[in-house]
Structures are given as C-alpha cells and as structure tokens.
Amino acid sequence: GVILKEGAAMDFENKSRIAGLVRFPSSLEAEDKSLTSLQDYVDRMQTDQKEIYYLTGETRETIAQSPLLETFRSRNLEVLLMSDPVDEWVVNSLLDFDGKKFQAVDAEDLELKEDVKLEGVEADKERTVDLISFLKNELAGRVGDVKESQRLTDSPCVLVTPKGGVSQHMERLMKMADRDFEGGQRQLEINPKHDIIRNMGAVLKRHRDSEQLTDWAHFLVDFVLLGEGKVDDPQRIGRTLQSIMGAATAHAAEED
C-alpha cells in the first residue's frame, strides 16, 4: 500500500492510474479495518459535494475520534482518514481525483453549506464576541487567532490550520527530518452553542478579572491537545484539573 502511494506521489506519468489503486480508511467505516478507494469515495459522494474531504493524523483511531469530524458525521459526509506518513504527499501531488479536489477538514478555509440555525438572543452573540477578544489576549503566543466555529456540534473548541500553514501531520514529519524546524501556530475555534463556551462568556461579563477564566482559557487549548495525544505543559494541566475537581467534589459534597 505504501509503495503504491509513493508511486502516486512521485511517478508523474502514471500517478492518475496509480491513484485508482490506492486505499484509505474512511469515517464511514471507522469501526472496522476496511479500506476505501478514491473511486468508491467519489461514487458515494452527495450530489452537491464538490470536494474529497480528508483528515491526517498519527493513527487511524486518533483521527476517527477528532471533533473535526462531528459536523461531517451529522451531515453524512464521508472523510478519508490518512495516517500513513506518505498520505499527505499523495494528496498534495494528485491535487484532485476524477475532477474532485482534495480538501483538508482541519483547514481554516474549509467551506460547508450552513445548517439551519436556531435564532439566538443578541446577548449570546455579544458574550461570544467578548469572549473571543478575551481569549485572543490570554492565548497570545499559543494560538495565532481565535474565531467562532461553524464546524463543531458537540465539542467546545478545536484547533485548525491557518490558510497557507502546514498541517500538524506534515509538521511532525518535517520535525523528524529537521529538529530545528519551527511550525506555525494554529487557530482556536470555539463553539458558541456549547455550554462551556456560553458559561465562560457569562462569567466574563460578571467577573472580567477572574483568575479562573485565565486557567480555563489555557485549558481550552490543552483540551484539544490532549485529544490529539499531546501534552504541552503537564504541570499546568494538572493544576487546572485539580482546581476543577476540587470545585466539583465540593459541590457534590454539599448536595443532599
């Protein structure tokens, strides 16, 4: 499989023919170990779908659990799960298959047809704008930007690759080749419908100097990194979790 993928990435004259032979795991078949061809993917595409969606990562299991797949599952859109080191070279070399371009689902410029949204009160929007401004200030140096997300349904936040940036999978490979390689900062997207984000916005409105808000702001990033199997600052995460557990256990102990 890897040799075929290398051929698709390097054999310019035969890459289209080889592309028909390569196989990838799919979000529609994440529970088993079956693989999907690009032709099968195209044949299953929705009538108004114009791109082949994919997500790269270190393991198939980690990718399949990514919150980035939430909105795709809710829309019944298939995503190819690419964990082989050569996979990203393949899509960057092919650019498209059967006239359908490849689109990374963790890219900032991802465009999806909007779901029907429930009308929210204006105060919620104001809290989200305020919270984004606060997070930009508190997380300067850790993330490149903070934005409202249109791609999350169940999770509070996610990190995405800015336009023109290098994906985390490619960054890892480049660091393996060059230890001095410095990757760029990803952008934090927050889900304004999630209770955690709504509550943080409410706390910010009442207590702008709350030390807890600063801890929670950093934990939003740590939450995503933990889901990706990474630990940026174990001591900070430990302190935050201890504080959260302290408050939760105190509340539980006070209940009848």
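Second entry:
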Amino acid sequence: MILRRFTQHIKEQNWFAVGLDVIVVIVGIFLGLQVTNWQESLDEQSDARKYLSRMNDDLQADLKNINHRVVFWQQVSDYGKTALVYLEQPNTIQEDYWKYLLAVFQASQIAPFEVTDITYREIQQAGHLSLFNNQKFRQLLAEYYSFNEGVSAQTLLKANPRYREHVRGKIP
C-alpha cells in the first residue's frame, strides 16, 4: 500500500508527498529499531536478575557449607587436642586405648571445600559477564570464583596432610 502510494506520487511528481512518504518510512524504521533495542535491554536486565538470583543461591549454599566446615573442623581440632593429651600423659593411653585410637583417627579427618560456581561458569562461558555493568562487582565475582583454582585453595582446602596419610596408613 505504501509502495503503491509512493510510486503514484512519483508519477504525479508530487515531491512533497514523496518526501513525506520517505520520512514516514525512515521514522517507522527508526521506531522499530528503538523498540527492538528497548526489548533487548529488558531481556538483558531480566537475564541479569535471573543470574543474580541463581548466584545468590550458590553463595547461600557456600555459606551453609562453610558453616558446616567450621563445626567439622572444631570437632577435628577437639579430637586432636584429646590425642595430644593422651600422648603427653602415656599412662592415660593404657586406661582407654579405644578413646585414644578414636581421637587419633578422627583428628586425621579432612573435608575438602570448593565454592559452588556453576552459575558463574555458565555466565562466563555464555559471555554474559557484560550483563553486569558494575566493573567492581565483576572484579569481586572473579576474585571469589577464582579462589577455587588458586594455590592457596589447593593447599588449604583440598590438601591431604601427611598426618592423615600416616594415621590412615597405620589404621585401616
């Protein structure tokens, strides 16, 4: 319909109408592009909110896991202290071998820890880190999630101490 009117205006050499038709088409294309950009922006904001919600769930799981680890390591530490008391007072070992053995064995427990990074890895692999405009926020995310791969994490949270190897080697 617009094309037919446009050609009719050209045949009639009605240049004002031709110009008006061109302007209407240009404005229509411009508005269409603006609506598309606006919709893409809304979709990106929605995706960012979904990612943030999922990362919050991951961080809450990490926090819960850390709290469990604190309790666990306190128990391991208590068993270690008990084992040391037995070792410092050898006469007490003879009184209760099983408590001593249990203390030595339990003091060799480990509980490796890794952050829950499923959502962050998905965001990285999909190239969606740019959904988060705040550079400081992106930097903090990278620091938190790169901890898993660092030397300190390997040494502190995933190590198999020599004490454990020794004790577990002696006590099947």
